[in-house]
Amino acid sequence: MILVTGGAGFIGSNFVLDWLACSDEPVLNLDKLTYAGNLANLANLQGDARHVFVQGDIGDAALLARLLAEHRPRAVLNFAAESHVDRSIHGAEDFIQTNIVGTFRLLESVRAHWLTLPADERAAFRFLHVSTDEVYGSLAPGAPAFTEDHVYEPNSPYSASKAASDHLVRAWHHTHGLPVLTTNCSNNYGPYHFPEKLIPLMIVNALAGRPLPIYGDGQQVRDWLYVKDHCSAIRRVLQAGVVGQTYNVGGWNEKTNLEIVHTICDLLDAMRPRADGASYRAQITHVPDRPGHDRRYAIDARKIERELGWKPAETFDTGIRQTVRWYLDHPEWVQAVQSGAYRDWVAAQYG
Ligand code: NAD
Ligand code: DAU
After folding, report:
1. Domain assignment of residue 107, yes or no
2. pLDDT tens digit string along 4-58?
3. Is residue 267 part of a domain?
């Protein structure tokens, strides 16, 4: 079996669902169920013996030792993290604890387990760390996209904590020989995306008649990848990636935030027109910029294509249409995640 951490979050739950759709290899899913963890994402796996869920913290060494000894996974895939830049600006403690201390504890626990394995299992074992393009910092307009050799220049507490975790993973390979793989991916979007992030927030706010808050001038650029494509990239890296290597994963879809929000409004205008006949664009409002806001990210995903034959299946046009459709078709999911804690966050962030 494989051990997935953070498998009740946005990308982790998509990964678990896709994994079990393509394979019968069981998944041990370790997730703390923070505000971002949602077992409703995995409702389709209820009663499926291939999915074993454990609520717990990647920083809990005793729990990890027990789970690793009991289940003997052939690979560990680390998705668990605090993932929202804005939250890391309001308070970084949880980011330091989970993304840095938690990754360290996980690496140490996995190393102790890995050392007990017979030689053939030890050689085949993999620790795959899921990271972000934000560790590379911000690009000037027209500058070449991030390659795997780009200098690390994280600018937010979130990206600094992810950069630290990447460095720990690298060191556990170079110093201790742990067979690691690291992926650095651009912005994901798709089903089960928590509505604190740009795309789901805009869809949910538009439908509820609320303002669509654009930070600053809205000309910041991100590269967008449909989440199922990220999941297929991770499966491919696990299968064929070279130990110790890092792979950048991206969608070749650089867009400004304003372009993204206009696209969402136009799709909603066609799929669920406003009762008054006006465009959802009328709800766009400009709000103060995010402190330290990175201006541009862009991923050069040629290495994973050249060496592992992976490239995205979706274009932005096909991916965003499916995403908007998914949110229109799942109002009960949206309602359920908008708990009291979520409303407190929205009040603190947007006043
Ligand atoms: P998310 O916030 O939706 O989910 C994170 C999950 O981790 C949640 O289920 C949460 O309960 C769990 N978790 C948090 N702390 C934990 C802990 N201490 N122990 C166990 N579980 C814990 O995040 P996501 O968007 O799904 O991102 C998953 C991973 O991918 C993260 O490592 C993130 O840095 C990385 N990533 C995200 C994106 C993106 O666009 N969302 C892009 C590139 C990389
Ligand atoms: O690049 C990969 C990263 O993408 C991941 O590592 C992070 O986990 C993930 O959260 C995401 O980070 P971003 O900060 O890019 O995503 P977010 O959805 O928060 O914001 C996307 C852009 O939209 C960013 O430029 C800020 C802007 N924005 C965001 C929100 C929530 C707005 O203009 N208004 C908003 O209300």
Report:
1. yes
2. 999 999 999 999 999 999 999 999 999 999 999 999 999 999 999 999 999 999 9
3. no
What are the catalytic residues? 133-134, 158
Which residue in 73, 14, 99, 21 sits closest to 323, CA to CA? 14
Q: What element of type H or E holds 249? A: strand 246-249
DSSP secondary-structure letter at 102? I
Structural domain includes residue 50 = yes
d(CA 277, CA 158): 40
User: 180-185 and 246-249 as β-strands: parallel, antiparallel, unpaired?
Assistant: parallel
Q: What is the pLDDT of residue 35?
A: 94
From the list 57, 54, 48, the residue with the least C-alpha distance to 17 is: 48
* Gap between the terminal Cα atoms of the chain: 46
- pLDDT recorded at residue 341: 76
C-beta 109 within 6 A of ligand 1: no
- Give the 3-state secondary structure of residue 99: helix
- Residue count of the chain: 351
Residue 36 Cβ inside 6 Å of ligand 1? The answer reads yes
Q: Check residue 159 and give its pLDDT.
A: 98
Ligand approaching nearest to the C-alpha of 284: 2
> What residues of the chain score a pLDDT lower than 50?
none
Residue nearest to atom 34 of ligand 2 (CA): 214
112-116-122 Cα angle (round to 5): 95
Split into its structural domains, the chain has a count of 1
88 CB-near residues (< 8 Å, 6+ apart): 82, 95, 156, 157, 158, 161
CATH code for position 74 = 3.40.50.720
Domain around 97: 2-192+225-253+293-314
* Residue 345 in domain: no
Q: 254: closest CA among 286, 297, 219, 283? A: 297
